[in-house]
Each structure stands twice: as structure tokens, then as C-alpha cells.
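Quick one: examine this chain and its C-alpha cells and tell me how the chain folds. Here goes:
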Amino acid sequence: MSTMITLGSTGITTNRNGFGALPIQRADMATAVHILRKAFDGGFTFFDTSRVYSDSEEKLGNAFSGMRDKIFIATKTFARTPEQFWPSLETSLATLKTHYIDIYQFHMPDQCYKPGDGTGMYECMLEAKKQGKIRHIGLTNHKIGIAQECIASGLYETLQYPFNYLSLEKEIDLVRQCKAANMGFIAMKALSGGLITDSAAAYAFIAQYDHVLPIWGIQRESELGEFLSYMQNPPQMTLERKAVIEKDRRELIGEFCRGCGYCMPCPAGIEINNCARMSLLIRRSPSANHLTQSAQEKMMKIEDCLECGECMTKCPYGLNTPELLKKNLVDYKRILAGEVKIN
């Protein structure tokens, strides 16, 4: 099995391990730069970040200054108007210490931007490409309808979308559509936000799709080591890994919160994207952090739910979020009371 992948019509060829730099914003500058350089030394060449990931772009800029031709950088703009687009792009170029971005992505747009749609947004991308400030145009999303429209439009060279072995058939079909359209597919949430705890099984599943590049969210050096080991010894799909995947799909697929955050902010101040999946997180990735005073206070905020239903209207997965929140709070209280044991 090849460890290299080409992202569709972009021609970008990189190792099947991509570096997702959202979590790196939580590390201090020296630690982040050390991890990023160690990732590069170990074989990582594709790094994905965003203008809205606090100082993530700055950390990439400091780590890779003077070696721009050795890596690929994908970043994102949350701009919704041309007036926001240009300052966002110029800030990204400055913080990344580069004069161009390999893939510039619309970050979770609520529509498929097209030439002549009245927004001027796609025209901004074309002008930025003409000026040599970006090389390829992509988007990220969680809404399947927008993703499908963008694939069908033929206007985008990459799609970044959640994809892992818990994905539904309609989401797997998106991957097939990108393949047919010669469009690169960048898989975010390859570990489903921490719900998938076997990264080797996650890697082996995604490796079945030769045009999909997973970006692993890495914050600590110990996490990096796991994926560096896959550079030389990529996990194969074995009977044991198939069994892990089948078991997890039986237990998890369907009505669970993916943690995408589209429902946020909550009018009652509830941290929905974590609280609505706490039962799964605390069992699959046991951590003392889930039981701290701060964590307990966040979970108890569920009692302030206004039952307004706003979160349900925003959920791209059609979940009954208030009901999920209530179930998670009941379970959490049982864990605190010692009625339920976790590993």
C-alpha cells in the first residue's frame, strides 16, 4: 500500500498523514514549533490550519520560515464578504510568513459560492489566485447539501469534510463523488473528535480510499509519535481491525454528537459540542479532566436549557440535541455519584 496521496486536480502529492493544526494553538510557542519541526523531520509535509485558530498560523510561520518550498500549507478564511476576505488573506500570509498559500479554503460557508451569485466571494478567490497569493481553491463544511453542491459545481479543487469509520453511507458517498470529480478530499475528524481510540484502525479504514488525506489533530509530542510510526509502517486492514471497526459502528453510529459546533453559541451558555457527547467521551477516552470542578460546572449548565430548539435547527446531523444533553447529564451525575464506573 502506497503511503503517498495526490489531492485530485491540485497535483499536490504528500504523505497520507496530514497535520491538523487546530490543537497546536493550545501548546506554547516553543513546544508547538518543536512538534511541527519534528513532524516535518518525520515525513509530514501537509499542514492544515485556519485564520480563526488563534495563533496556529503564527506557530506554523515560526516553525517553517525559510523552508516554504518543502511543505504544503492549507489555511481557511471565515470571511463572508469581500471586505473581510482581503484583510483575512493578508493576515494569513503575514502570520504564516509566506507569499502564497497552497490551498485556500472557505471555512464552513453557509452557501456554495459561485461566480455571479452576488456575494463576490468566489471572485475574490479567483483574483487572489491571479495575483499568485493562493494556488488552489477549496472549502470546508459539515453540511452535506452544501458539500454536494460544491462538488457538482466543478469550481472547487478540494473538499474538507468529517470522514472516519463511523461515517454514514451518504457521507461515504461524498468521498466517491469527489473521486469521480477528480477533487481532493481532506478528512477532518478522522478520530471523530476523540470517540475513535484506535488510530491504527482509523488509518487503515481511510487508506482504502486512495484520494483521501486525513489530517490528524496533534497537540502533544506523544500523539505525534503514534502517527510518525505509520510513515514507515502504515497500518493494514486486518481481521482484528475490521472487528474493532464493526464493534464501534454498532455502538456509536447514528444518534451521537459529532462535536462540530454548528449549534453554538447556545443562548443559555451551554457548551453543547462537548456536553452532548460527554457520556461517550468519558468512557472511550477516560480523563480526570472530564471530572474537574470546571467540567462539572459546564455539565450542570445543561439544567439551564431553555428548550428553545435553536440548536436543533442548526444541527447538520438532525439530532434532538436537547434530549441528548439531558441524557448526558443524567449519566454524568450517576458517574459522579459512583453509580457507574468508568475505566
In short: Residues 272-336 form one domain.
